[in-house]
Amino acid sequence: MLKTKRKVWGLSLMLVLVVILSACGQSAQTAGGGDSSNTAGSSEPGDLRGKRIALIMEFNTGTFSQQYVQGVEEEVKKFGGTLTKFVADNDKAKMASLLDSAITQQFDAILTDHGDALLEPGLKKAVERGIPVIVFDAAVNVPGAVVLSQDDQKMAELTLEQMKKDIGGKGNIVKVWVAGFAPMERRQLSYAKFLEENPDIKEIATFGSAQNPALDTQAKMEAVLKQYPKGEITAVWAAWDEFAKGAARAIQQAGRDEIKIYGIDMSDEDLQMIQDPSNPWVASAAVDPTDIGRVQVRYAYQKLHGDNPEEKVVLEPVYVHRDALPDQQISTSELSQYVEGWGQSEQGKKDWMSEYESAQ
User: Taking the CB of the first residue and of the last residue of the chain, which one, N or C, has fewer CB atoms within 10 A?
Assistant: First the structure.
C-alpha cells in the first residue's frame, strides 16, 4: 500500500513538472514571437507614436515656408509625434547652436531647413548619438544624414528656357538672386550657363537680399526701373518667389506692363499673382512646399523605424505657366488638376506607413 502511494505521488510530481516546463516553454516562445514582431520592418501601428521631432529653420519667411511647415506638421501628426520648431532668424551660427541644443534635449529626430556647412559638426554629433537627422536645402556632407534637395538646376533651366522663348531669344534682363544659400548657388550654375549660351540676352542689373526679401526687392526694383525707362528691360528672372513678389509689385506700380517675370518656388500667394492677368509674374518652376515637408518627415520616420534609406534625395520640380491655369482663382491644393506632377508626392513612403494613415 505504501509503495503504491509512493508511485502515485511520484507520477503526480512528474506531471506537475511537465506542466511547469511546458508552460515555461510556451512563455518563452510567445516572448520570442513578440520580440520578432517589434524588430525593424514591423508595421504594428503605434510602434513609433510619441516621438519628439525638432525642426530647425534658418528662416521662416513668406508663404512658401509657411506651407512647408504645414507639411511637416501634418506628417508628424499622422505618425502620432510632437513637433517643436526653432527659427534662427537668418543667423547661420545661431542655427548651428539650435542644432546643438536639440541634440542636448535628446529629440528623437531632427529636421533642418536650409543652413550651410556650419551645421556639419552638429549633424555628425547627432548621427554618432543615433539621432536621425534629415536635412533640407543645405550643402552638407555627413555620412548617416539624409539630405533632401530640390532639383534647383532643372528649375532654373525650365524658367530660363521659357523666358528665352517668350522674348524671342534676345533682350535685357534683370536677375534677382543672393549668394550664400545652397539652392541659390545651384540655380546660379544654370543661369551662368544660360547667359554663356545666349549672348543676345544681356544681364543689365542684379541684386537681392535674404533680409526682408520681398520689400528689399521692391525698393531696389523701383530704382532699376527709374534707371532703365520703358523699352530697356525685357524680363526679370527671380531665383526665389519672395524676390518675384517684390519685383512684381514694383513693376505693377510703375505701370511697366512690357516686363514679364519668371520665378522659382510656388505658394498659394504666388499662384494668385501668376493667375492675375495684370500681374507681370507669368511662370514659376517649383516643388509643392507642403509635399517637401511631408517627404522630409517620412525619411525621419524611416530612420526611426530602422530602415536604411538613401542619403541623397532629389525632389523633382514641375513648371507652372499662366497659360495652363483656369480663369477662376485656385489654390496649390487644386493645382494638380491643371499641372501634371504637382503635389501628392509618394517619395519616402513605405508600405508599413499605411497603418499610421489608417489609424487617423
Answer: N
